[in-house]
TrEMBL record:
Record keyword Mitochondrion present: no
GO MF entries: metal ion binding; oxidoreductase activity
Domain named Tyrosinase copper-binding: residues: 148-165, 343-354
Protein species of origin: Massariosphaeria phaeospora
Signal peptide from the UniProt entry: 1-20
Pfam family, one: Tyrosinase
PROSITE patterns assigned to the protein according to its UniProt record, in alphabetical order: TYROSINASE_1 (PS00497), TYROSINASE_2 (PS00498)
Protein name: Tyrosinase copper-binding domain-containing protein
Keywords carried by this UniProt record: Metal-binding, Signal
Length: 423
């Protein structure tokens, strides 16, 4: 399924008035140390306080996950967890900065390995795919209209990122787990000064070559007010770190440029080799994906509000932490909604997205793992009317990875095929 460029660009900024209003009330949470915290008021705009709040909530989610696994073992049952997950085989995903240099290099080596392996998708489906890495990009391109602002958004990307992690481990010998990007930290340090993007041999590579004279990036469409974001400090080919020689083979489909125009290579599936470009943009990180933005997201009360706050209520001028991360990396393909998995940083960003959902689920566990933990239809903003997403809706990645799974299998990180949490 395809949708127009205007819809693609409007993905982060448009929504009808029919959506439920945001709710600001919240219940107190008991933390592992026995203290209580509440997000019933507007989160602190003091960065240090907001960071502390985030750490407490992440600690609570970790402790809650361990407790439920232990209860499942002791009682011979696992609430919300029909799989075989236990403390013994539990994987811990960590923030990039928490990895040692050898662990970071092992991860990027595995990504480079995946880029050297032959694609599995037949050429008649994705003619431009040249590697296993491209299988994932093509799958995302083909399903973009059904996995953003839909009921499957969160679970689809959870399974997608996990399957990518499994490919790194099973096909390229990676021994670790998928790391994540903590946007709140890079909002403080600045992107280029973070260990994740400093361009060293132990980073995810750095910025693109600086291109002077760039204008602003404008997100527009659907008759809604434009959202304008300054260009970043790069814009050209990435020239340092593990991915300095990387080729992007697919896309773009709807790539916004700094002159206000949008370019595409048709449906994005034909062969179009070019360098990886980045335009690291601190403004997007600091404005839309900072610690207070994260707290705003976690204090939402229902799944519709959560996923809409995450992606950005269209017309609000806020593109959410999801858009904030994508527009922070910028460049090509990072700024193209369809082709964005072509930048390896995509998977750290969506590790962060999944971590946010995991933390939120721990605070709303009575409803977040079942039918009440799903909201939306099968198409972007239901602009092509489609049935509501249910626990029996299937997620299918075709040749990239499998098997297909029902939504009910993907609701918990320690249920179905999964057995991981975040630290």
């Amino acid at each position: 399924m395809r949708f127009s460029t205007s819809i693609a660009l409007g993905l982060l900024v448009g929504l009808s008035d029919a959506l439920a209003a945001r709710q600001d009330n919240d219940a107190p949470t008991t933390l592992p140390n026995g203290s209580a915290t509440s997000l019933s008021t507007i989160p602190s705009r003091n960065t240090a306080v907001a960071i502390e709040q985030l750490e407490q909530l992440a600690d609570f989610a970790y402790a809650e996950a361990i407790k439920l696994l232990e209860e499942g073992t002791n009682r011979k049952r696992r609430p919300h967890r029909p799989g075989t997950c236990s403390r013994r085989n539990l994987a811990i995903r960590r923030e990039w900065g928490a990895l040692s240099n050898p662990e970071r290099k092992a991860y990027t080596d595995a990504v480079l390995c995946l880029q050297e392996k032959q694609a599995r998708t037949p050429s008649y489906l994705i003619p431009g795919a040249r590697s296993r890495f491209d299988d994932w990009i093509g799958t995302h391109i083909n399903q973009t209209a059904t996995i953003h602002y839909t009921g499957t958004f969160l679970a689809w990307h959870r399974y997608f990122t996990w399957q990518y992690e499994q490919a790194l481990r099973n096909e390229c010998g990676y021994k670790g787990y998928q790391p994540y990007w903590d946007w709140a930290k890079t909002a403080i340090t600045g992107l280029e000064k973070s260990v994740m993007l400093d361009g060293s041999a132990y980073s995810m590579s750095g910025n693109g070559k600086f291109i002077p004279g760039k204008g602003n990036i404008t997100i527009s469409g659907n008759g809604l007010p434009d959202v304008t974001i300054p260009s970043g400090t790069g814009g050209g080919c990435v020239n340092s770190g593990p991915f300095k020689d990387m080729k992007v083979n697919l896309g773009p489909v709807a790539l916004g440029l700094s002159n206000g125009s949008t370019i595409s290579n048709g449906d994005g599936l034909s062969y179009n080799p070019r360098c990886l470009k980045r335009d690291l943009t601190d403004y997007a990180n600091k404005r839309f994906a900072n610690a207070s933005s994260f707290i705003d997201l976690l204090k939402t009360r229902d799944i519709m509000d959560f996923q809409m706050t995450m992606q950005g209520y269209p017309g609000s001028g806020d593109i959410g932490v999801h858009g904030g991360g994508h527009y922070s990396m910028g460049g090509d393909p990072g700024r193209d909604l369809f082709t964005s998995p072509g930048d390896p940083l995509f998977y750290l960003h969506h590790g962060g997205i999944d971590r946010a959902w995991w933390i939120w689920q721990s605070r709303n566990k009575r409803t977040s793992y079942g039918a009440k933990g799903i909201a939306g239809t099968g198409t972007f903003l239901n602009q092509m009317p489609s049935p509501n997403t249910t626990l029996d809706t299937m997620i299918d990645f075709g040749y990239a990875a499998g098997p297909p799974r029902k939504m009910r299998e993907l609701m918990s990180t320690t249920g179905g095929p999964f057995c991981y949490i975040y630290k």
